[in-house]
Design brief:
Number of helices: 7
Low-confidence stretches: 5-25, 176-185
Distance between the termini: 82 Å
Helix content: 25-40%
Length: 279
């Protein structure tokens, strides 16, 4: 009698484990399918990787991560960028998406990397948070998120490649004891032939734009992308000035420019744009 009960328990345990594994595999397959279905590009001159994460599974989501990324994707495509666009990626899918994007890189040209979602700074490193992240320990932070510095290093393997990173994230110092996202923070980043633009400075929060229905920083970035011929350093200087003004001095975008030559993101003729300049 007892033997039969044990056998029944084992059968049921195996069944439920198989069901759980199947669900996890199905979810993983769906995540990777999203990556495979992203834009495929052949141009090597101006390429962009755009990701928005909003639907976090184990922490509070972001309101405009996906919608902001979608707007950036559409604007960059209109400017001739070849865009790999993604939304709501898990850690595995995030890694696969980066690897797939790098497969088509040439020896030169311009790469623009845009991320909207949660970010965490720990021990001088900036981590981009996938939607399946569980904030429980420092060890898990390093192994369950994407190191922005590591991404930068991979792109810097191409000496003639210029790299622009635009991060609009709710960053926070990692709290091992609580695993929360209470306080904004970020770590400075520097690299040759690279520009890093963060939506907020180390001790300042990020705000939403009531007018644009999105992040204040990304909203201003998009407006300034409409200006033909605007050099990228001047672009982000003006973005910073506008965000400071609109946030009442509470949000401080941070930029480090390691580029050695002028760079223009919108190289269209001025006659093709009729919008009033935000500068």
């Amino acid at each position: 009698m007892i033997l039969k009960a044990v056998e029944k328990f084992l059968v049921l345990s195996i069944f439920f484990c198989a069901q759980t594994l199947g669900i996890a595999q199905d979810r993983s397959e769906r995540d990777l399918q999203i990556v495979r279905n992203s834009t495929s590009c052949t141009s090597e001159a101006r390429k962009a990787f755009v990701l928005g994460n909003s639907d976090y599974r184990h922490i509070e989501g972001t309101r405009y991560g996906v919608s902001d990324a979608s707007k950036v994707k559409n604007r960059l495509e209109s400017l001739g960028f070849c865009v790999h666009y993604h939304q709501n990626l898990t850690l595995q899918a995030f890694g696969v998406a980066i690897a797939r994007f790098m497969e088509g890189l040439g020896e030169g040209g311009l790469i623009l990397f845009y991320f909207a979602g949660h970010g965490v700074s720990e021990d001088g490193k900036n981590y981009l948070i996938p939607i399946d992240f569980r904030p429980t320990s420092e060890f898990q932070l390093a192994n369950s998120s994407i190191d922005l510095g590591a991404i930068t290093s991979r792109f810097r393997r191409y000496p003639n490649l210029r790299f622009v990173s635009v991060i609009d994230a709710c960053r926070s110092p990692f709290r091992r004891e609580r695993g929360n996202f209470d306080d904004p923070a970020m770590s400075p980043m520097h690299a040759s032939e690279a520009l890093f633009a963060f939506g907020s400075d180390s001790d300042k929060p990020s705000f939403e734009s009531n007018q644009a229905g999105g992040g204040l920083f990304t909203g201003q970035f998009l407006l300034h992308l409409d200006i033909p011929g605007l050099e990228v350093n001047a672009l982000f200087t003006s973005v910073r000035r506008k965000v400071l003004k609109l946030s009442g001095g509470k949000q401080h975008p941070w930029v480090h420019n390691g580029l050695t030559q002028d760079l223009v993101l919108n190289d269209q003729s001025r006659s093709s744009v009729s919008k009033e300049s935000p500068i």
